[in-house]
Amino acid sequence: MKLAEAKRGQRLYIAAIPNPTVRAQAIRFGIAEGAEVECYEKLPAGPVVVCKGKQEIAIGRKLAENIEVRPA
């Protein structure tokens, strides 16, 4: 499942970020493979907002389509 497909309130583990460029961008946000996040908000045709700890991170839809997740 891709992060862009997550439902609001769903807790997820980052399973894989296969593209090295996307992986580098995600690491800059503090998100790496194995991290647990919660889908806080999903804006129509906009970013996916995830919570990691007390930090809220808005991830663009194109980037979210390249991040594989699994339910926590």
Mind explaining what this structure looks like?
With 72 residues, this protein is of the alpha+beta class. It has one domain (3-71): Ferrous iron transport protein A (FeoA) (SH3 type barrels, Roll), CATH 2.30.30. 19% of the residues lie in helices and 38% in strands. The protein has 2 helices and 5 strands. The protein has helices spanning 20-29, 61-64; strands spanning 11-16, 36-42, 48-52, 55-59, 68-71. A 5-stranded antiparallel beta sheet has the order 4-3-2-1-5. A hairpin with a 5-residue loop joins strand 2 and strand 3 (48-52). The longest helix has 10 residues, at 20-29. The two termini are 12 Å apart.
Quick tags:
five-stranded antiparallel sheet, 5 strands, 72 residues, globular, 2 helices, Fe-transptr_FeoA-like, transition metal ion binding
